[in-house]
Write a structure and sequence with these properties.
By secondary structure, the chain is of the alpha+beta class. The chain folds into two domains: 13-47; 51-192, Nucleoside Triphosphate Pyrophosphohydrolase, CATH 3.90.79.10. The chain is 23% helix and 40% strand. It has three helices and ten strands; from the N terminus they run βββββββαβββαα. The protein has helices at 91-103, 155-163, 170-192, and strands at residues 13-22, 27-34, 40-47, 51-56, 62-70, 75-79, 82-84, 105-116, 127-137, 149-154. Helix 2 (155-163) crosses helix 3. The chain is globular and about 60 Å long. The N and C termini lie far apart (58 Å).
């Protein structure tokens, strides 16, 4: 390396961007980037405002899941309640809203479980995960174009379903397993005290 010249390592610098599509949910652009070795390359990027998912756990140890048709896969999937953020929207507020809309539930406790990047190679989406407890129910407030069924599943059964590959949705898998780890840790601390 020449003295005084710093080499980029594990970094790509955007040189230009061209918007290809601007839709209701996503935007697609093609960016030209400079690689660390000085060559240029193209990157296709889907911009997404992000989302929230919620593990709603009742006092009987059951979680509320939703079944809905997922068009890209052409089939009904079972997932935890979730929804898309509006650009700039607070993810906690979005999670509270989506839980109410999809299940009719409100929660006394809404604990943050962290976030996940579902598709790091070409998508900016970040999904925030929550565990909702102390549930009370009212009417659902589904979006005009939203059709889904709500189903109660024993929490431990949902964990087993994740481990058997029966719940292929990434956000559902991770949020359930993170909720399980948190609950197990709480039980362990209670037994120590």
């Amino acid at each position: 390396m020449t003295q005084g010249v710093k080499k980029m390592h594990l970094n790509e610098k955007r040189l230009s961007t061209k918007e290809i599509f601007n839709g209701k949910v996503v935007k697609l652009s093609v960016d030209e980037v400079r690689l660390e070795d000085g060559r240029n390359a193209l990157r296709e990027v889907i911009s997404h405002p992000g989302g929230v998912c919620v593990v709603p756990l009742n006092d009987d140890g059951e979680i509320y899941m939703v079944r809905q048709f997922r068009y890209p896969f052409g089939k009904v999937l079972m997932e935890i309640p979730a929804g898309k953020l509006e650009y700039g929207e607070d993810h906690r507020a979005c999670g509270i809203r989506e839980l109410k809309e999809e299940t009719g539930a409100e929660a006394d406790s809404f604990e943050y479980l962290g976030c996940l990047y579902p598709t790091v190679a070409y998508d900016t989406e970040v999904i925030h995960m929550y565990l909702a407890r102390g549930l009370h129910f009212g009417d659902r407030l589904l979006d005009e174009d939203e059709f889904l069924d709500v189903e109660k599943i024993p929490f431990e059964q949902a964990v087993e379903m994740v481990m058997r590959g029966e719940l292929p949705d990434a956000k559902t898998q991770l949020a359930i397993l993170k909720a399980k780890a948190l609950i197990d840790k709480e039980k362990e601390n209670k037994n120590k005290g």
